[in-house]
Amino acid sequence: MDEDFFRKSDMYHDLYYVTKGRERCTPKHSYGPMIREYFLLHIVLDGKGAFHTKNSKYLLEPGQFFMIFPGEQTFYEADEENPWEYIWFGFSGKVAKKILSTIGITPEMPIGSIQSFHESKYVIEEMSSMDPFTVISRLKLQGKLYELFSLLANDDHVRLNEEKPFDKVNKRLVYTENAIKIIREKYSDTDFLIRDISKELSLNESYLASVFKQTTGKTLHEYLMAYRIQKSRDYLETTDSGIAEVAEKVGYKNPLSYTRIFKKTMGMTPKEYKKARKQR
Predict the structure, then answer these.
(1) What's the predicted TM-score (pTM) here?
(2) CATH class of 170-280
(3) Which has the least CB within 10 A, 96, 182, 191, 228?
């Protein structure tokens, strides 16, 4: 593994590097679960691997990237047969989150593809190998960081915002992100139905289902169920609420249905999970 760490400089506040590096992983090599204090971008050069967030799993190949956000617990692992090689760039700064949001990279949508990867790969590899310690090379690297963001901001990763009209963004990602927002806002409503999402977005139900599956790898129902189970784990770990009360808080009218789904997902009942957490 090759890694550089950057000294903090008074010259850079809005956007600055923390670290950069490169690694060719061994089969099943993993990192995490881990929480970062800065943004960390990984770009896959070769091979395959999986990136896990709190609610999703993404399978990634060469030319794709994943972004780790500060405070988000993540885990990533190299493929057993074709382990990946990646380059990473850690960065922070006052405008970092705004830039990522503007180009469509969010905690809900932390993955994507590098624009014209074969042509852009040399820029990424050049950045990885540049000296981070001299003033001149650091200034060049700062410019390259903005160039890198421009490579992430292709048609599949440009978010609808004030400066860009709707017809210039990829609607699939906008629809998916809006569907996720609705799920996270209404998951606790016991009367909430999947078809309510397409109604609220004024989209054909089948079309939205197809778009969401293509973008996230999950169906809308699977995402809703996973999010409800995750929220219920938070209640089980941090409150004294009973199982029936927790079930209702996360949108289940029938505690038995909640218990069945929880056990299928976690391998134990909510009661067993709560007991196990208290014994830690």
Answers:
(1) 0.57
(2) mainly alpha
(3) 191
